[in-house]
Amino acid sequence: MPDPRTIAALRSLVAAWTPAAWQNGVHVPTGVRAVDEALGGGLPPGRLTELVSAPGAGGQFILARILRTARAARERVALIDAADAFAPEGIAPNDLRHLVWARARNLREALAVADVLVRDGNFATVVLDLRDVSRRELNQTSKSVWHRIHRLAERQPAAVLVQSHHGVVPAVRWRITVSRPWSLADQRCTQEHLSASLAVETTRGHLSEELAG
Asked: In terms of residue numbers, what domain contains 51?
């Protein structure tokens, strides 16, 4: 029989490494006020949330804020980049230190990587970036694939965020939409100002109904 003192010590080490927010099921802040307020404090753990942003409407900015907020909280983020859309040169180097960036060659590979990283359990947030994947290709994705990712997320503490331009995920409880493209004046503002002024629309879905439809 294993020594209970050894098991207790191992549990203590795991608890010390794992952020308290994960253990308590607390929402994971994005650093964008409108998004965090819409979701009751941040991305819900153990759930899929979809962020829909038109090109030039702030999708990259929100991802940058997620990375900065995670770095400040000493939490890890996994980014699955389905179409090589992520631009790390636009992110402060220090904000990239807790990021695992998986560059997929196509949508199928990106979904397979998501299957692995969502179940990993070592990330506060897993981001599946589908922004530059064609709508036709996304619409051909079986609902069973999203159902599987959703069920995997439910068994882990990570918050799973799917970024897209079109709103294509059926197995989603919350969909956040940023529809207004940024102007040149917006792009000259500080990150703090943009975070405070960004407006979003929120739609709540029902997993069972959407998958059955």
From this structure: 25-212
